[in-house]
Amino acid sequence: MEKIIYLVRTSTDTNCDNFRQQALGEISQRLLQNDKVQKLTMSFDDSDVARAADLRQEYRPPLPQATISVWVSTANTHSELVDILKPYTSRIEGYLVTESEVMAPPIEEGQRTEGVVQVCGFTKLEALSEEAFLTVWKESHGPLACDIQSTFGYRQNLVARKLTPEAADYSAIVEEYFPADSMDSPHVFYDTEGDDEKLQQNVNTMIESCVRFIDFETINVVHMSEYTVKV
To answer: Smallest Cα–Cα separation from 118: which of 158, 96, 91, 151?
Structure first.
C-alpha cells in the first residue's frame, strides 16, 4: 500500500466550510469508487480551527486549505485521483510519501478527530546529506517534539516524489495532533501547565532542535480539522 498526500486550494468561489461539505460528500464518494483507494482521510482549514490563524507560517505561498490523504494499492494511476479533484480545486500539490506513524491519534471512521492537526511541510537543510537529515529528524527531533509538547498523535511523511507540477520541493510533511486549546494557549501547546519558565525552555529547545535540519525559508504550517472517511 502507498500513501499520497494532496495539499489543495479550493475553487476561488468556495470557502473552506463549503468545500468540507463537498469533500466529505461527493468528492469522497468519487474517490472511494476508484478500486485502488483503500483508506481516505481529509483535513480542512475551516471555521473550527479559526482560533489557530495566528499560528500559521507561510514561507512558500500559498498555504493549503485542505489536505487529502489517500492510501492506494498503487500510486501508478494517481492521475485518476487528480482528475477527480480538479473540478473542485484551484491548486493541487501531490506527493507520494513514506509514512511513519510515531504516535497514533485516536480516530473513528466518519468522525472528526479531536483537537487540531498541525500540518507542516518543509525542505531539509541543503548542507545535510539525506542520511544525516533522517537521523536527526527521526531519531532525535521526533521523540523530543513528542516529549516537550502536548502531542497526542504524530506522523512523519517522508516525500518520495512529487506527483503534480505545482508541488513544492518538500522533503517531508508532518502531521501533529494537539488539544483544541493549544490553538490559543502556548502553555497547552507546550504542555507546561502555566509554568512560564518551563514554557520558555520548551520553546527554546524546540527552536534549537528544528534549526538542525529544517530550511526555515521553505516551511509552511497550518492547523486543520481532520476527518477520517475510511480506515
So the answer is: 151
